[in-house]
Amino acid sequence: MSALKLVPWGQVIESTPQILQGARKLMNRGEQQQAQQPPAAVRHEGTSEQLAGLQRQVAQLQEEQRASAVLIRSLAEQNAQVVRTVDALRARSRWLTGACSLLGVVTIALLVWVLSR
Questions:
Q1: Which residues lie closer than 8 Å to 19 by C-beta, 6 or more apart?
Q2: Tell me: the pLDDT tens digits for 48-99?
Q3: Residue 30 pLDDT level (bands cut at 50, 70, 90)
Q4: H/E segment holding residue 69
Q5: What's 46's DSSP letter?
Q6: Could you give the CA distance from residue 45 to residue 51 in angstroms, rounded to a whole number?
C-alpha cells in the first residue's frame, strides 16, 4: 500500500489523457492512410498534381513523426519517474527488512532473558 502512495498519481492521471489522445490520433491517421487508395501510375499529364499530393503526404508524415516523438518523450518521462519510485521503494524495503530483522532478534533476546529469570 505504501508503494502506491509513493507514485505521483496526480501527474500520471494528468498526463494520461494527453497520451491517450496522441495515441488515438496516431492510430486514426494510420487507419486513414491505409484506407486511401495508392496513387495512380505516374502519368506525365498529372505530374504536378501527383507531386502536390506527395508533398502533402510528406508533410503529414512529418507531423505524425513529431507527434510520435512527443508521445514517446512523455512515455519515457513517466517511465523514468516510475523507475525512480521503484528504486526508492526497493531501498525502503531493504531498510524495513533490516529493521524488522533487528527487532525480531531483540524480541527473541528479550524473551530468552525473561524466561531465564
A1: 71, 74, 75, 78
A2: 889 999 999 999 988 888 888 888 877 777 877 877 788 888 889 999 999 9
A3: low
A4: helix 47-116
A5: T
A6: 12
